[in-house]
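Postdoc handover notes: sequence design on the structure in folder B. Input tokens:
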């Protein structure tokens, strides 16, 4: 029930779009009874929503660490956090993203805004997220998220980098573009 998604280019451009704007809507969905995962150093662009969708089902139990990713050119929401999901989001960069976090009150996401906020829970600083020409990215039930994720050493011992806008290069992503 654990995995890491890293160093990947998720290009949401499509001819078949639920939002009728040429952008993929169901980019990632994470449910499961004991789902634990990290998303690290990815480039997620040209989507319209659910990039990612976490929890939301009564039987779900999702703990996620989402760090050092770059979201760009997203017309809708990026994160959709539902019930039974606990997320630490840090060191991420959002550019031209209408809503980094979708509306609602379910679930728990700690969206780091300063580097020292995590010390009392994780024993380390968090890397602040950056939003540029984007909607706000604020915590939702943030203390609950931090209280839950602190039990996972892969999260508490992670050394996040400062959020930064990535230059568009294929060097960081797998073997490059596959045709």
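Designed sequence:
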């Amino acid at each position: 029930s654990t995995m890491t998604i890293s160093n990947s280019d998720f290009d949401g451009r499509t001819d078949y779009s639920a939002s009728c704007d040429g952008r993929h809507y169901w980019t990632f969905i994470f449910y499961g009874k004991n789902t634990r995962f990290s998303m690290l150093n990815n480039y997620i662009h040209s989507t319209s929503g659910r990039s990612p969708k976490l929890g939301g089902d009564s039987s779900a139990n999702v703990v996620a660490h989402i760090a050092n990713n770059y979201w760009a050119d997203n017309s809708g929401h990026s994160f959709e956090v539902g019930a039974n999901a606990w997320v630490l989001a840090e060191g991420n960069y959002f550019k031209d993203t209408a809503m980094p976090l979708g509306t609602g009150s379910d679930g728990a996401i700690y969206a780091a805004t300063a580097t020292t906020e995590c010390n009392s829970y994780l024993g380390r600083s968090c890397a602040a997220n950056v939003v540029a020409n984007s909607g706000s990215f604020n915590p939702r039930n943030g203390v609950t998220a931090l209280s839950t994720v602190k039990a996972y050493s892969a999260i508490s011992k992670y050394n996040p980098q400062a959020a930064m806008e990535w230059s568009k290069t294929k060097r960081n992503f797998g073997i490059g573009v596959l045709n």
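Context for whoever picks this up: The domain at 2-156 is CATH 2.160.20.10 (Pectate Lyase C-like). Don't rerun without checking with the PI first.
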